[in-house]
Design goal:
The complex is a heterotrimer of chains A (305), B (584) and C (323). In chain B, 38% of the residues lie in helices and 25% in strands. Chain B is α/β, with parallel strands linked by helices. Chain B has two domains: 252 residues, Rossmann fold; 292 residues, Rossmann fold (3-Layer(aba) Sandwich), CATH 3.40.50. Chain C is mostly helical. The chains are: A mainly alpha (305), B alpha/beta (584), C mainly alpha (323). Chains A and C meet through helix 6, helix 7, helix 10, helix 11 and helix 12 of A and helix 1, helix 6, helix 7, helix 10 and helix 11 of C.
């Protein structure tokens, strides 16, 4: 049975398009590398940058190993706390990916559910949900994320800011992004709802919830996948932006954005590596996710073939 | 020397699976003032020929061989710029869907004048005058006024007239019309065809009409070419080819066309088409008694009404508004009353928008009626609240839909699709039994066991429709609603499906509500017929009475629009004997 | 037609009220306004007195409407952090943000749209492919990183442009403009391009995608069958039909430029509203946050309204009813 599924996947048009596109393959490899590196950070990285006990302030601001004052212990240099840049980047990517994936999941679940309900039920429920969506669309996502972040800070006791920042951030970015999913799913649901296989299911006597789950949901997921990949890149960049602005992940357990922020103050004194290396990692991550999303969109679009 | 000469045309498409030959060695010729029909079923390649002649063949299609000569000049090898000058000026084209053929953002007048200014090099003022004259000649009144209107302000038929005007505006020598009336209503179709024929003769333009509709061919073509899988199988004067066809495929095709003048016992099987199931009557009966016949014998025909529709009405709100007076509503069904007797096949015929599909869905319970009631077996089902009764009702009534491509969930396997109603109503005690039932059902409709694990996209339109029928039969229904079940299928496949339905009805004693816009099909399938227009039921009569002695004016009008197919060959048809009919 | 406008205006007011509600809720319930305003040694009685004075004990709806009423007149209360009226703060910062956003929007539109059209028409050319590759990089680069790189390159290494601030400004009434001085323009270039880059690539990809879709439609096919020249087809028929859906989304995007200016202003220390907002988040200065929120909503709503009106003007299907 699995043999059957695998061989069908191998022969499918999507895989064909994938194997013919060098950019898709390269970006998949890059994304995979970064992903694995981030996942296995504790095993792979030479040092643990979050363990305060191992840090020595005297090791601060050391340039990359190949430059004049470099230290072979720290391949890409160290930051202002004496953290090894390579390790910090691996751990930082971990956080960036974690926040990215979690917030996309959040947006997806909320957005798809609301979209299904809105599209299938129509009428009042649809109006209300779409009204809320419209109000939210009056703002760019990043502003909403900032706002939610700011409000959370105001509501939570001051000392727990740092430890809860991860969850606050996931929630903030997640809630700023659900509208896209909801709108697309709603549109697709409205199309599928009128299709005759849905009528046939209603004729059998199935309840709306079952129809949504079994018939409509699998058929509207296609475009959702494409949105999700693009959204992942956006979420990663948003997290980095918020961290850079100082309202994201704190410097104790820095993400890529936080690292760039830290390094920003040292740019002019010539210690460029603290900002630039995390910057490159961030761009590579976002770029590979975007490339995959692009390829996925073209592969799934029957009209462009 | 002919006006248009196509010689040894050979067109290939390259794909990842290799080269597909779309057109193989096709030669045609067209004289001025002549109308040539190119007929074939879907996939035969008719549109490809049209596209190739006008030079709009889309990659990866390529013309690998052959020549196209216009008035003796070779045009297929022309460089793009030169070919562009031929398009529109010497060869005009008309597409199927008038709704999408026109630029929605430009006025009709602008689209006409720009075409003329490009090809005829006249000034704006003169172009406008000509445009107005053109609109007049295609039957659009108040031409001056309508020049400044946008496409969406025209109705479907009017739009197609605009498209025709656009195709004619630069006075071409040849016009290629690709399914010009398929997207239009029956009554509009007749008008457009008349217009095309008149314009052709008047301006001595040569026209190629590409269609799958034999009725269109019979109506206006002088000569016809029959295409099968990219090959030209027969060609000649229309009366000759349709009246006494020579090639086996042509014979099969013609025999499958539903006739309005005679009633058949069964449709002939178009055996030339590969992939046809040998669906004989005996096979069907055997499987029937095995699975379905034992349990519930519905006892065949009776005079008792099974379904009663009383003063049924349905109102759609098109634009909701706070103030009642600003609301726009549409009465899709207005006070319709009729009944369907047990065991009979009742037909509902009408044009699009007549409300026939709405009634079907109202009876089935998919729509909520605004007023009136539907009684099924003496139970009022429009107000049914009781869950058990509702479920029992749902089991007894099933529906076969029009579009085979959207009636099956593309992500479910056939086994699950057909088993769904069985599982939902818990009609089988074990999963193994369910599987056996589904297997039997698929057998019954002519598909084998290997269909069970497959997905819908692996099947053709006709096969999908069989799966839909299997699904509809899974709950052993008493009443089957067929909503245009064959309108989206090729003529030959239609014959198979209609045969299947006929056999089913006979062996299972089903009561059927058969909805169609196609009068000849109604004649072949139904015992009684109701005629609908704009939501109203105008006339109900026995089929033969309706066709021989219609009462309502609209019925007479519809009957007059039926294509005259009486000269078509009757070879191979099982005509229902008048004597037998009276006895049975 | 009037019906349409009336409905849209109605919707906009609704949105503003909804946003006002959120702003008010923030204002009133996140943290204690009194605690943020007075020092530590203010007595309980004095606090109670202040409460009554400010009307903080009044019923919810009364306070809400008072807030809205004040806001409509431009009164947003006092900043917690800077002890100045919020409206004053915003007034001093708004010109900077608006000028920056305007120039960025112009760059994004005037470069993005033509590039989008070009890459759609010449799909397989070398220039097209490089544009597409660059665009991918463009949407993968966070705005702040672009800013940093620009400063590093043009400011520090090449020393061509100033890295911080707005340069010299000229005061015209309450509006301070940087358009009239050379240093004003020099300081504007980097932040404007930084801000524009992301939007520009987005617009380019959008225009390209829409145009490619339009070029596949039946009426384009019919236009070709009529023998119309390519230029006419591409620019008269395809382009016009492309712009219709593009207008809506472009409007939304341009609105978000004002929000994205937050980032750019932070990187370049540009004295605009965005920088003010970020500082207020860090200090939990609610009145400023609420005011910024309302102002941005207002701009967005106005832009959306304009976009809808444009849409209406361009698409005859909305303008002229079926006869």
């Amino acid at each position: 049975m699995t043999q059957n599924v695998l061989s069908r996947a191998y022969n499918s048009d999507i895989f064909y398009s994938f194997s013919r596109s060098p950019t898709a393959i390269i970006s998949a490899i890059v994304a995979l590398l970064i992903g694995l590196g981030a996942l296995f950070a504790p095993l792979v990285s030479p040092h643990n940058p979050f363990d305060l006990a191992t840090l020595d302030l005297l090791d601060a601001n050391i340039p990359p190993a190949w430059s004049v004052n470099g230290d072979p212990r720290f391949l890409l240099g160290t930051d202002d706390q004496g953290r090894d840049m390579l390790s910090a980047i691996l751990y930082g990517s971990r956080i960036s990916l974690l926040v990215g994936l979690a917030s996309v999941m959040f947006s997806l679940v909320v957005g798809v559910s609301l979209g299904l309900i809105s599209g299938y039920a129509g009428g009042r429920i649809d109006s209300v949900i779409m009204r809320v969506a419209d109000v939210q669309l009056s703002f760019p996502a990043i502003l909403i994320a900032l706002l939610v972040d700011g409000i959370a800070r105001g509501l939570l006791p001051r000392d727990s800011h740092d430890s809860l920042s991860l969850y606050v951030l996931i929630f903030a970015i997640g809630i700023s992004g659900w509208v896209q999913y909801a709108r697309t799913v709603r549109g697709a649901t409205m199309v599928e709802r009128n299709k005759e296989y849905v009528q046939a299911a209603r004729l059998i006597g199935m309840r709306p919830f079952t129809i949504l789950r079994r018939h409509i949901l699998p058929n509207v997921l296609g475009p959702v996948l494409v949105i999700a990949t693009i959204h992942l890149a956006v979420a990663i960049i948003t997290e980095a932006t918020l961290s850079f602005l100082g309202v994201g992940i704190p410097p104790t357990t820095p993400s890529l954005g936080t690292l760039i922020r830290i390094g920003n103050s040292y740019l002019f004194s010539g210690d460029w590596w603290i900002s630039i290396f995390p910057g490159i990692a961030l761009v590579l991550l976002a770029l590979s996710v975007n490339l995959l999303g692009d390829w996925l969109r073209d592969a799934l679009n029957p009209k462009l073939r | 020397m002919a006006l248009l000469d196509i010689e040894n045309l050979h067109i290939e498409f390259s794909s990842r699976h290799g080269n597909v030959v779309a057109i193989q060695d096709v030669s045609l010729s067209l004289e001025a003032g002549e109308i040539l029909g190119v007929v074939g079923e879907s996939g035969a390649g008719k549109s490809t020929i049209g596209n190739a002649v006008i030079g709009l063949l889309e990659p990866p299609g390529k013309m690998t061989q052959g020549t196209v000569l216009l008035n003796g000049e070779r045009i297929d090898q022309l460089p793009p710029q030169a070919f562009r000058k031929v398009r529109g000026k010497r060869i005009g084209m008309i597409f199927q869907d008038p709704l999408t053929s026109l630029d929605p953002l430009q006025t009709v007048g602008d689209q006409l004048t720009e075409s003329m200014q490009v090809h005829l090099h006249i000034n704006q003022h003169e172009a406008r005058e000509r445009a107005a004259a053109l609109l007049n000649s295609v039957g659009i009144e108040q031409a001056e006024l309508r020049l400044d209107q946008y496409p969406h302000q025209f109705s479907g038929g009017m739009r197609q007239r605009v498209v025709i005007a656009l195709a004619l505006c630069c006075e071409p020598e040849v016009i290629i019309a690709d399914e010009p009336t398929t997207a239009l209503d029956v009554s509009i179709q007749a008008q457009i065809l008349d217009l095309l024929r008149a314009l052709c003769k008047e301006k001595q333009v040569g026209m190629i009409i590409i269609t799958h509709d034999m009725g269109v061919i019979a109506e206006i073509t002088d000569r016809v070419a029959v295409l099968y899988r990219g090959k030209l199988v027969e060609e000649g004067p229309t009366r000759q080819v349709l009246g006494s066809p020579k090639h086996l495929y042509t014979k099969s095709l013609i025999s499958a066309v539903p006739r309005s003048d005679i009633k058949l016992r069964r449709f002939p099987m178009v055996t030339y088409i590969e992939g046809v199931q040998k669906n004989t009557k005996e096979d069907n009966l055997a499987t029937a008694t095995r699975w379905m016949g034992q349990q519930r014998n519905f006892g065949g025909k009776s005079d008792k009404p099974l379904v009663q529709v009383s003063k049924l009405g349905m109102r759609f709100i098109l634009r909701n508004s706070f103030l009642k007076r600003n609301r726009i509503s549409l009465d899709a069904v207005k006070d319709v009353t009729f009944s369907i007797k047990e065991g009979e096949v009742f037909g509902l015929v009408g044009e699009s928008g007549s409300g026939k599909s709405t009634i079907a869905r109202l009876i089935a319970g998919l729509y909520q009626a605004s007023h009136g009631s539907v009684h099924f077996n003496n139970v009022n089902v429009t107000q049914l609240d009781d869950k058990k009764m509702l479920n029992s009702f749902r089991r007894q009534i099933q529906m076969v839909f029009q579009d085979p491509f959207s009636s099956l969930n593309p992500r479910m396997r056939i086994l699950d699709i057909v088993a769904e109603p069985i599982r939902f109503h818990k009609l089988a005690s074990t999963e193994a039994l369910t599987r056996k039932i589904v297997s039997g059902l698929l057998d019954y409709v002519g598909l084998g066991d290997q269909a069970l694990a497959r997905f819908p996209h692996e099947f053709s339109g006709g096969q999908r429709q069989r799966i839909c029928i299997a699904r509809a039969l899974a709950t052993r229904p008493r009443f089957l609603i067929c909503d245009e079940p064959t309108s989206a299928l090729d003529v030959s496949i239609q014959a198979q499906i209609l045969n299947l339905l006929k056999d089913l009805q006979e062996s299972l004693g089903l009561t059927i509500l058969f909805i169609s816009h196609d009068l000849p099909v109604i004649r072949q399938m139904c015992d009684r017929v109701g005629v609908m227009r704009h939501g109203e039921l105008l006339e109900v009569a026995e089929t033969e009475t309706l066709f021989s002695d219609p009462r309502h004016d609209y019925t007479k009008h519809l009957l007059s629009l039926m294509p005259g197919l009486d000269f078509l060959s009757q070879e191979g048809l099982e005509v229902e004997d008048a004597v037998l009919r009276e006895a049975g | 037609m009037l019906n349409f406008i009336a409905r849209r205006v109605f919707q906009s007011i609704f949105v503003m009220l909804a946003v006002g509600f959120i702003a008010f809720a923030m204002f009133r319930y996140v943290g204690d306004p009194i605690n943020n305003m007075v020092g530590q040694d203010t007595t309980l009685e004095q606090r109670a007195e202040l409460r009554k004075q400010l009307g903080l004990d009044d019923p919810f709806l009364v306070q809400y409407f008072r807030f809205i009423g004040n806001a409509a007149q431009g009164d947003f209360g006092m900043s917690y952090r800077q002890r100045r009226p919020v409206s004053e703060l915003i007034e001093s910062r708004m010109p900077a943000t608006l000028e920056l956003s305007f120039v960025s929007a112009v760059i994004a539109l005037f470069l993005g749209i033509p590039m989008g059209i070009y890459t759609a028409l010449r799909r397989d050319g070398v220039l097209s492919r490089s544009f597409m590759t660059l665009s991918l990089i463009g949407i993968s680069l966070p705005t702040f990183l672009i800013g940093i790189l620009m400063i590093l390159f043009f400011g520090v290494m090449l020393r061509w442009l100033p890295s911080f601030g707005r340069g010299d400004v000229v005061q015209l009434g309450w509006w301070s403009t940087g358009f009239l001085t050379k240093s004003g323009w020099q300081s504007l270039i980097m932040p404007a391009f930084t801000l524009a880059l992301f939007q520009m690539t987005l617009i380019m990809r959008l225009v390209r995608a829409e145009m490619l879709e339009v070029l596949q439609t039946d009426f384009i096919k019919f236009a070709r069958a009529r023998g119309l020249p390519d230029r006419m087809i591409n620019f008269r028929h395809a382009l016009k039909n492309t712009l219709v859906p593009v207008i809506t989304i472009t409007g939304l995007q341009l609105g978000s430029i004002i929000a994205f200016s937050i980032i750019t202003e932070t990187v370049f220390q540009w004295p605009g509203m965005g920088l003010l907002f970020i500082q207020s988040i860090g200090a939990v200065d609610i009145p400023v946050m609420a005011a910024y929120l309302l102002l941005i909503a207002f701009f967005f709503v106005i832009i959306n309204l304009i976009v809808d009106l444009l849409y209406f003007a361009v698409d005859p299907r909305l303008r002229v009813q079926k006869s």
